[in-house]
């Protein structure tokens, strides 16, 4: 029996490896045709826990941006490529390397998952190619890991902490308990938020670290209940967040008077949960389809193509691609130095970014929004999920270039 | 307040109860695996995917056809069992008599295909499924708030586990099954249809997975990945209990659920690996598992 078990383990390992190589082969097959033109690559998770968070919907958003721009720039056709990095930094940087070296890709964007984004960010610096991170959260991308060709678009851990941590504490939620995913991203989110909570005069009563991809949160929720904190902050992401929200409702956390704050949650996760489990949840997002006429116009078109409303990752990818193409046009060249300079010079004003501008460290700052999820009876139509609690101006939500810790902008 | 190692006893009772609830899922799933392994010598890696299918079947039945939870509790395992019959008749049967590794690879591949299809159709963030109206809400036990639905999970799983054990160990059908495991040729010679018995066993084993899936639907997000998150733990449970041992699978399932619950109180970071630590120790000390007979 032991022999079988160990050979089984070996077999699983082999399968995992071949799956990885399969993905590489796929990526190269898709991108085999090398020609002139401006090439944009979408690299993200298309099959794992973040497949709804960004996934193929981000690819569709990028396609819309290219169509809206007219399909070509500087008289050259704009080409879109995409690949699945499976949330693995090694696979992600291999695909990026192949795209930059063999396929002459000019810009890589989306880049969900901080570890992959950091790896590709470093690669873009050595290859002198532009990348615009949308889906990853870590503020290190424009902090200690900043680089002249790297940009960070939709949000970061700092903005989430300011939005949810700061605003909620000011609104009376002055004692916190954290459910934290036991890896770097969870720690950073918990730390950043704790700082803001304390700054606003609140206190942190405790935290419990749960393993990544945990399915049952009841033990942790009992501990959160016992702490009697006014706010239970979820410093986790993806399925971990949806499962903790669903089970918090089951254990009567909100009914007992505690508030639940999703530190990284988007419309896609709220949609997956349904209003019954998620109503009352407070979260920060950089975009909502029903904000104003421009967001509605874009989102309706997105809905017609995908049967879903975009979240800030998908709308952010649209904005990133559109801004890149505008910068190429303004620079009258694909030269990364010139394009990077234009990206930092031009204002960002599209369906996603309002009052947006790009700082010297590559951080795009724009207004962020604190939302509360509606009760089922308040929702008047499909996808009518959010109530706007407050708007956080871009320069308050994000670090300034000097504060960010970016060595080049100190 | 009384405390044990710095944890209030009231909180401890709560965690023990939660351990028991999680143990119910481990027991149901590992029971199915044990039954299948005992009879077919197949390490059924598709078990997690079939558990996921059970949950999806319940969700689809409710949203597309308005079939309620109670009906789904019977229909979803049936649907999964039918799929099990197809899998056994068309593929697994051809691997009979080969090294168990072939069956493992086949079922592993199947689970990737099934999960991939559902991810393609329904996305990865999952679908909501509300508990039936009769079981909503909760009761305050003094030391914890117990959602009624979780209580029901424990009851349902104990009943089903006991029934399965009874059928296999105490009925004539179970006697045929056990005999066919020992010596299929001889049992066939007595006029018993062994291939049918094998198919029925596989169908029954996966039906247990489907049943666990329906039970899980209101607690976890109905997501294509829900099975793969659980299946490795369940395999560890089966190994600790002893491959193929019915009683071993049930008892170990509950036991490790409780152990995991306690770990979540004292050192949460270790809760994902505590079961594997136990598995490693058991394999070193008793390679056949706690309840296994050895070979």
UniProtKB/TrEMBL annotation, chain A:
Transmembrane residue ranges:
none
A Pfam match is: Peripla_BP_6
Top-level taxon of the source organism: Bacteria
Asked whether the keyword Transport is assigned, the reply is: yes
Record keywords: Amino-acid transport, Signal, Transport
Write the signal peptide boundaries: 1-34
Q: Which CDD domains match?
A: PBP1_SBP-like (cd06327)
Which residues are in the Leucine-binding protein domain?
38-374
GO biological process terms on file: amino acid transport
Matching SUPFAM superfamilies: Periplasmic binding protein-like I
User: What family does this belong to?
Assistant: Belongs to the leucine-binding protein family.
Protein name as catalogued: ABC transporter permease
Q: Which organism is it from?
A: Alsobacter metallidurans
TrEMBL record, chain B:
Q: Which GO terms describe its biological process?
A: amino acid transport
- What are the record's GO terms for cellular component? plasma membrane
Q: Which GO terms describe its molecular function?
A: transmembrane transporter activity
Q: What are the record keywords, sorted? A: Amino-acid transport, Cell membrane, Membrane, Transmembrane, Transmembrane helix, Transport
Q: Localized where?
A: Cell membrane
**Topology in membrane:** Multi-pass membrane protein
Per the record, a Pfam family?
Answer: BPD_transp_2
Q: Does the keyword Transport apply?
A: yes
Name the principal localization, coarsely classed: membrane
> Which stretches are transmembrane?
12-35, 42-62, 68-88, 100-122, 142-168, 200-220, 232-254, 266-285
Origin, by domain of life? Bacteria
Listed InterPro entries: ABC_transp_permease, BCAA_transport_permease
Concerning its family, UniProt says:
Belongs to the binding-protein-dependent transport system permease family. LivHM subfamily.
Its protein name is Branched-chain amino acid ABC transporter permease
């Amino acid at each position: 029996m032991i022999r079988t078990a160990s050979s089984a383990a070996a077999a699983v390992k082999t399968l995992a490896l071949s799956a990885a190589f399969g993905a590489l082969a796929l990526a190269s097959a898709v991108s085999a045709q090398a020609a002139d033109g401006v090439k944009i690559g979408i690299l993200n998770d298309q099959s794992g826990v973040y497949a709804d968070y960004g996934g193929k919907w981000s690819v569709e958003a990028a396609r819309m941006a290219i169509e809206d721009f007219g399909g070509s720039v500087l008289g050259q056709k704009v080409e879109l490529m995409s690949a699945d990095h499976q949330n693995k930094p090694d696979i992600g940087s291999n695909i990026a390397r192949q795209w930059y070296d063999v396929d002459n890709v000019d810009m890589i964007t989306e880049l969900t998952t901080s570890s992959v984004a950091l790896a590709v960010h470093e690669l873009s610096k050595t290859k002198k190619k532009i990348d615009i991170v949308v889906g990853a959260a870590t503020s290190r991308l424009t902090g200690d890991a900043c680089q002249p060709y790297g940009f960070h678009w939709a949000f970061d851990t700092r903005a989430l902490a300011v939005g949810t941590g700061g605003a909620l504490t000011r609104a009376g939620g002055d004692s916190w308990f954290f459910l934290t995913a036991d890896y770097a991203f969870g720690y950073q989110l918990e730390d950043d938020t704790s700082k803001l909570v304390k700054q606003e005069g609140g206190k942190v009563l405790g935290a419990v670290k749960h393993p990544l991809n945990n399915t049952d949160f009841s033990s942790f929720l009992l501990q959160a209940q016992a702490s009697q904190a006014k706010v239970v902050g979820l410093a986790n992401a993806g399925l971990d967040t949806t499962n903790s929200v669903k089970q918090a409702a089951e254990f009567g956390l909100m009914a007992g008077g505690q508030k639940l704050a999703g530190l990284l949650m988007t419309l896609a996760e709220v949609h997956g949960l349904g209003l019954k489990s998620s109503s009352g949840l407070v979260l920060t997002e950089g975009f909502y389809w029903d904000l104003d006429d421009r967001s509605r116009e874009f989102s309706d078109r997105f809905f017609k193509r995908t049967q879903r409303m975009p979240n800030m990752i998908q709308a952010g990818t649209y904005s990133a691609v559109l801004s890149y193409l505008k910068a190429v046009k303004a620079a009258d060249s694909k030269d990364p130095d010139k394009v990077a300079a234009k990206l930092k010079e031009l204002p960002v004003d599209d369906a996603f970014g309002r009052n947006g501008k790009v700082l010297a460290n590559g951080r795009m700052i724009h207004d962020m929004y604190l939302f509360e999820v509606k009760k089922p009876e308040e929702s008047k139509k499909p996808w009518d999920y959010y109530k706007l609690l407050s708007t956080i101006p871009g320069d308050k939500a994000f670090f300034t270039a000097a504060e960010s810790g970016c060595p080049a902008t100190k | 307040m009384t405390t044990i190692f710095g944890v209030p006893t009231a909180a401890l009772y709560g965690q023990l109860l939660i351990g028991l609830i999680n143990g119910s899922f481990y027991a149901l799933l590992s029971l199915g695996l044990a039954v299948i392994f005992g009879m077919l010598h197949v390490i059924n890696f598709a078990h997690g995917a079939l558990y996921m299918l059970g949950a999806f079947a319940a969700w689809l039945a409710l949203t597309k056809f308005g079939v309620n939870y109670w009906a789904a509790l019977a229909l979803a395992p049936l649907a999964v069992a039918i799929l099990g019959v197809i899998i056994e008749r068309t593929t697994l049967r051809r691997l009979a008599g080969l090294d168990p590794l072939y069956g493992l690879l086949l079922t592993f591949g199947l689970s990737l295909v099934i999960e991939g299809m559902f991810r393609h159709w329904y996305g990865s963030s999952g679908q909501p499924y509300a508990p039936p109206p009769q079981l909503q809400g909760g009761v305050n036990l003094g030391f914890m708030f117990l959602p009624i639905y979780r209580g029901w999970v424990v009851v349902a799983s104990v009943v089903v586990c006991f029934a399965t054990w009874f059928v296999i160990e105490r009925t004539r059908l179970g006697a045929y099954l056990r005999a066919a495991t020992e010596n299929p040729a001889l049992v066939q010679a007595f006029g018993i249809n062994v291939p049918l018995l094998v198919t029925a066993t596989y169908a029954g084993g996966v039906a247990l997975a489907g049943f666990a899936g329906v039970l899980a639907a209101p607690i976890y997000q109905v997501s294509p990945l829900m099975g793969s998150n659980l299946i490795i733990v369940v395999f560890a449970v089966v190994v600790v209990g002893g491959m193929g041992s019915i009683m071993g699978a049930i008892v170990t399932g509950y036991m490790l659920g409780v152990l995991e619950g306690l770990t979540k109180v004292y050192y949460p970071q270790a809760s994902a690996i505590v079961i594997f630590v136990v598995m490693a120790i058991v394999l070193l000390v008793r390679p056949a598992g706690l309840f296994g007979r050895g070979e």
